[in-house]
């Protein structure tokens, strides 16, 4: 019987309702019940259990997993909260419930993944400090050699120094940058520290997937792309998970901040560039 049990957050993620991280949040908020009882984080469920979110029964996913590459326009917010005007879910209007992997801020445009697979969301976010994301950025004044050097070697923001990265000048006011970390509004904060303002920011690649569709359009990832993506994220996601073992829960669940310090730069404002 034990092999049929799943952690509640994994069960919810596999239904396509949301990612595992979002599932942890709604469990903490008391919005989830198992057989009419509000559970703790870490609880396991069986196929026979009745799991509800906000009173609505959910079922384990049976349909095919969906993986989309979407070229997000400026002004669209990467949120699944349908009460937010201009949310990404309503904009795409996909017939099956999907959600974004990571974030791209409202003022930025470009590539973002959409899926109903909570497992791949969990893997990519665990591997966030190991995979590349590539951007083109236009700023408000002439780009100097000093600017390229400083951006490449690390800029002090958010009580840390950014990791060294690849930066290449494209024109007098546009550069390309490849990041392997995801601090909050990282590129904008880096350029602001050096006295520049971002005029336009576009993400053109995530790991092995490059942007190849018009603004506002989406496409399915190919089987080959999905296979390669999984091969690339699997080792790094496992390594990071092993680096931060989850403590055994013998009492009521405690918040993550009791195990990982808030000033750890790896956990400061993830993914909203």
Automatic annotation (TrEMBL):
Its EC number is 5.4.99.-. Residues 232-273 are annotated as: Disordered. It is an enzyme of class 5 (isomerase). Gene3D superfamilies: Alpha-L RNA-binding motif, Pseudouridine synthase I, catalytic domain, N-terminal subdomain, RNA-binding S4 domain. It catalyses: uridine(35) in tRNA(Tyr) = pseudouridine(35) in tRNA(Tyr); uridine(2604) in 23S rRNA = pseudouridine(2604) in 23S rRNA. Residues 237-273 have a biased composition (Basic and acidic residues). The keyword Isomerase applies. One of its GO terms (molecular function) is 23S rRNA pseudouridine(2604) synthase activity. The keyword RNA-binding applies. Residues 6-66 form the RNA-binding S4 domain. InterPro entries: PsdUridine_s_RsuA/RluB/E/F_cat, PsdUridine_synth_cat_dom_sf, PsdUridine_synth_RsuA/RluA, PsdUridine_synth_RsuA/RluB/E/F, PsdUridine_synth_RsuA/RluB_CS, RsuA_PseudoU_synthase, S4_RNA-bd, S4_RNA-bd_sf. One of its GO terms (biological process) is enzyme-directed rRNA pseudouridine synthesis. Keywords: Isomerase, RNA-binding. Belongs to the pseudouridine synthase RsuA family. This is Pseudouridine synthase. The gene is rluF.
